[in-house]
TrEMBL record:
Annotated source species: Candidatus Mediterraneibacter caccavium
Highest taxon of source: Bacteria
UniProt keyword list: Membrane, Transmembrane, Transmembrane helix
Protein's name according to its UniProt entry: YwaF family protein
Residue spans crossing the bilayer: 43-63, 70-88, 108-127, 148-170, 205-227
Origin organism lineage: Bacteria, Bacillati, Bacillota, Clostridia, Lachnospirales
Amino acid sequence: MRLYFPCWSDRVFFLCGVLMLCSEVWKQLVLTFSLGHGAYNWWYFPFQLCSIPMYVLLAYPWLRRESVRRMLLAFLMSFGLLGGIAVFADTSGLMYPLSALTVHSWTWHFLLILIGISAGVVYFQRLRSDAKNVLFSRALSEALPLRPFIHAAIFYLCCCALAEIFNLTLDRYGLINMFYINPDLQMQQVVFRDLVPLIGNLPAIFVYIAATAAGAFLFFLVWNLLFRLIRR
């Protein structure tokens, strides 16, 4: 593995991605055959915000373009970290009829937090070692390199668009609500579901998407603040 992934972070991220993929395959098999009696439940299709880091980790070591790597790291340390933490505001989604699935769900989200923290460390290691990372000016780049987060936010919006395509094309096969933004279903996320009677379901979905991006940006700002404090 060192031949293909000479950097330690590449090896760790890839192994985490493989581990998550194997556990996700196991989860899908259990849900389909143990609980679903052979019928696939599209509600658990693995394309939620908390699922995307798995795909990112599997792809990251193979990508060599620095801007893409930095974007994926920014995604993991902001959106991925948010996905790992936000679920604890309402843990009902972590509970399953089988205790093994419940343990898997809790472990998955704790792992997202650890991966997000690790991605933040790697991100700033790469940022510090790359003197060519410039946005408008070197001083601004070192203080607040926004470009990777902007790219990560665009990546998130693309994932939202793909999730909506899944929602609108696969709903004929069963109940599906990827990213919890299916316009045919009422918003279920805490806080945002209370907005539905006030502004309607579709506007609440857009507010939810915007709030997720804003929350991720807040995490990104905190990371930058920590980096600036450490450098002093």
